[in-house]
Specification:
single chain; 1 helix
Length: about 50
């Protein structure tokens, strides 16, 4: 195999593994979504 093909194959395997892990975590999780900013509260809803 050429070096470029090896790199592409390795990158594909890494991406496939990451997507599989994400799917497994979401499937077996409790439904809570972790956001990038942590558990910050939502801003208050303005009264109408």
């Amino acid at each position: 195999m050429s070096r470029k093909l090896t790199v592409v194959l390795l990158a594909t395997l890494v991406l496939f593994g990451a997507m599989s892990l994400k799917t497994a975590v979401v499937k077996h999780g409790n439904g809570a979504v972790i956001m990038a900013n942590g558990g910050a509260p939502q801003p208050p809803v303005p009264w109408k």
